[in-house]
Amino acid sequence: FAIAVLAGLSFLIIILESSQLKSNSEEFTDIHVLHDTHPVLKEKLKDKDKCWTKEKFEVIEACEVCSEEEVNNIVPVVCAVEKNYKEKVRCYSGSEAYRACTKVERIEERKFWMFELVCFLIGGVSASVVF
């Protein structure tokens, strides 16, 4: 019986991991769609602000949360998006622009360590009950 439970649990984990991998690979496409469909971004972004869609670029400031002032003033424009995450890029033409992004690395890392702490605590409680 225990082996069947472990096999079922392993199968469930594989399904969850594959769905997570799929969502990460679609992130780049989602950013393009977001910039083309979001009403504020569509209206206020100029072509030079979307240079990263047409040419190679490098990220010069990693994805970060927009400040309260940036959200209220909508400067940069990508701070109007619901998550309020921005990333600064430099296109090979020399222009710099902000683009919306989906994950802030430090927030994701904090979530991971919180998950690890909860697992450790549950494991500790489980071990203390058994022994």
Description:
The chain is built from 5 helices and 3 strands; from the N terminus they run αααβαββα. With 131 residues, it is an alpha+beta fold. A 3-stranded antiparallel beta sheet has the order 1-2-3, covered by helices on one side. The mean pLDDT is 87.
Relevant terms:
single chain, 131 residues, alpha+beta, three-stranded antiparallel sheet, 56% helix, 16% strand, elongated
Low-confidence stretches: none
Approximate strand percentage: 15-25%
Largest sheet: 3 strands, antiparallel
Cα(first) to Cα(last) distance is: 23 Å
Strand order of the biggest β-sheet: 1-2-3
Q: What is the β-strand count?
A: 3
What's a quick, concise take on this entry?
By secondary structure, this protein is an alpha+beta fold.
List the helices and strands and how they pair.
Elements: H1 2-25, H2 27-37, H3 39-44, E1 57-65, H4 68-73, E2 85-91, E3 96-100, H5 105-130
Antiparallel strand pairs: 1-2, 2-3
